[in-house]
Every structure is written in C-alpha cells, then in structure tokens.
Amino acid sequence: MSGVAVESTIAAKPARGPLADLVVRMFRDKPLGAAGGLIFVAFLFFGIFANVLTPYGMNETNILNRLEAPTLAHPAGTDHLGRDVFSRVLIGAQLSVIVGFAAAALATVVSIVLGVLSGYLGGWVDMAIQRFVDAWMTFPGLVLLIVVISIVGPGLAQIVVILGLQYGIAGSRIVRGSVVSVRENMYTHAAQSIGAGTWHILWRHILPNIMPVVIVLFTTRVGAVILAEAGLSFLGLGVPPPTPTWGGMLAGSGRAYMYVGPWLALAPGMCLTVVVFAVNIFGDALRDLLDPRMRGVR
C-alpha cells in the first residue's frame, strides 16, 4: 500500500521540463547568478528594441542643451554636441548585442570544430591542432587584435570575425578536454564496438555530453567579447563614428569632457561594468548547475 501511495504521489506531482527545472534551480541555489541572468535578459531586451526605446536620435544635436546634467528630459544628460547620452547608450547596447552574440557564436562553433576533431581523432591530428593553438595563444590578445584591425580596417563585420576566431581558437582547448573525457566512457566504447560510424558517435554521444561546457563557454565569451570590442573602440579601432559604442563614448566625449560632465563617462562605463559582471556571474552559476559533479552541492 505504501508503494502505491508513493507512486500516486509521484504521478500527481507535475513534471517540469529540463529548462524550467534549470530556472527553478537557478533561483533556488544560485540567487546571485539568477540576478545576473535577469540583468542579461534586460540587456538583450534594451539592445534588441533600442531603436524603439530611444527618446531621441543617436546623432540628434541641440547646441543649446550641450553638456546638460541629467534631467527628466535627458535621464543621462547630454554631450558636448547636445546629443542625448541615454539614447546613445541604448544604441551602443544594440551594437554590443550584435557583436557579443555574433562573435561568441562564431567562437563557440570554432571551438567545437577544433576541440572535437582534436579530442576525438587524436594522433597526428591532435598534435597538429594543439601545436597551432599553442602558437596562437603565445601572442598577446590585444596586440593581435590591434595588428589585424590595422590591416583589414575597422568595421562591424571585421570585429566579429576577428574576435570570433581569437576566442574560438583559444577556447578549443576547453572543448578538447571535455571530448577526451567523454571519449573514454563506456557508452562511447560500446558504440564503437558495435560498428557505429564516427559521425554517428560524434552527433549522438560526444556533442550532447559536452553541451553543458559549450553553453557555459558561450555565456562567458559574450562578456569577454563585449569588453574586447569596448577596448578596441576606446583605442579608435572599433566601429567607426558617428555610430555610438560604449568604448567609443568613453574614448571620445567621455574622456575629453570628463571633468566638466562626469556623466559622459559614468553612463557607458557603468553599463559596461554591470553587463560584463552580470554575464560572468550568470555563466559561473550555469556552469555549477550543469556540472553533474556539482549536483546536490549547496
């Protein structure tokens, strides 16, 4: 009778999907990571709908209102040309969304391709790929970015491709470690023993079991790419003006008029700090929740 009661209790309990269960565990076990996730979602919303939410045009000037402190009409003040800083920050968020997600997606694809080939095939393929990765990682990241941007010229597409390749090649080492671990499990050897093809094993056994690592790698790459793009824009090698970016706003009017109008540097600087911090703590919390070895640890 007790077994029947237990079974009826389990059957009466509504089943949650894996995504809903992950969200519940995030808010229950990782409240700081959940807060970072909410900030991350808000950042996505403001970035996607920036053109609708901006009260003024990004380059709409009004000399009569130049260097105006924050007011109800201009929540983040105005710059030296009378442009609304709040509108420009929102447009900068939109560009950060495009660059961050596109470059992080490209980096994740590159990491998966190189890491899976290197970790599963092994042998001379692993040796060649890993020596290339070692040589790539010896170059300082910022110096390499500056050199390549100086050659191909600044632009949105160039930044996405260069940042995607840089972080993708370096991140393949993490994916390779996960692939090597999964390759030595019993179910992979069982699939090989019954004659399963290489692509079948990669698609049905390797990729599903390294997805937690890939998801966390993607989330952490978003913050790193946003920070790198801001650094390039600060050095004048990012998206060319008059399109506003957070790094470009810090390097232009933010640095030139910092003492006269401190809000010119505070607005993009605080947005950059909060977004990158939120993405990083969200990625750390996601890693802990998706790692089977951390399951049950509070």
Structural summary, described in words:
The structure is a single chain. This protein has helices at 2-12, 18-29, 31-48, 50-53, 85-121, 123-138, 141-152, 156-183, 186-193, 198-234, 246-256, 263-290. The protein is an all-alpha fold and 298 residues long. The chain has a single domain (19-294), classed as MetI-like (MetI-like fold). α5 (85-121) packs antiparallel against α10 (198-234) and α6 (123-138) crosses α8 (156-183). The longest helix is centred in the middle third of the chain and has 37 residues, at 85-121. It is elongated, with a radius of gyration of 24 Å.
Percent in strands = under 5%
Secondary-structure element series: HHHHHHHHHHHH
CATH domain topology: MetI-like fold
Cα end-to-end separation: 34 Å
Number of strands: 0
Helices and strands: which structural class?
Answer: mainly alpha
Q: What is the number of domains? A: 1
How many helices does DSSP assign?
A: 12
In CATH, what is the class? Answer: Mainly Alpha
Overall mean confidence score, pLDDT: 81
Shape estimate: elongated
Poorly predicted tracts of residues: 1-13
User: What is the gyration radius calculated from CA atoms?
Assistant: 24 Å
CATH superfamily: MetI-like
The CATH architecture assignment turns out to be: Orthogonal Bundle
